[in-house]
Sequence to fold (187 residues):
Amino acid sequence: MTWNSDFTSRFLRNLGKAPEAASCWTTRWDPRAWTRILTGAVRAAIPRRAYLKVAAKGFSSAEAYGRSEYLTIDVMAYDNKKSGGWSTPVAVVEMENYGLEKCKYCAWKVLSVRADHRVLICNVDTQRQYKSYGYAESRDKLREALRPVVRGTGGQPLLVLAGDWSATPAAGGWSDVFKPILVRSGV
Fold:
């Protein structure tokens, strides 16, 4: 199993364990609550090792300088033992609830950080329910819109977990809502 597929399956499983996730997604949309739910699922999805630290927005940190979010990236995992904790990140993850232009900016943020794995979690609007927010209309259009960002930042692939606003989670599962897209610089 690759890191991307392992992360994706762990993320979906952990999202399914959050009791308030389904109602927040389908009936009582609250961006702050949703971000908290996603952040918890992401933190739990990053494969754990004894030396790995995960810093995440809104979660307490044991760091001496009291930060829970580094470089304004939502979630960052790094090797706490390597170079006294000053190694390049193992993974950087950004989550975006709004339109395509903001998703491109967030992709640029994670792609600009030297890391082993880069992930963007965002949404598409296949039913055009939220036109004013400027979402991509499909996962294919999202991939095409992000491809120049990947190309412009050196060509490293970007894992995108794209949620479809019109999809609803099946009993205990989110795989109908979030689908992985690997965005590469080429065709």
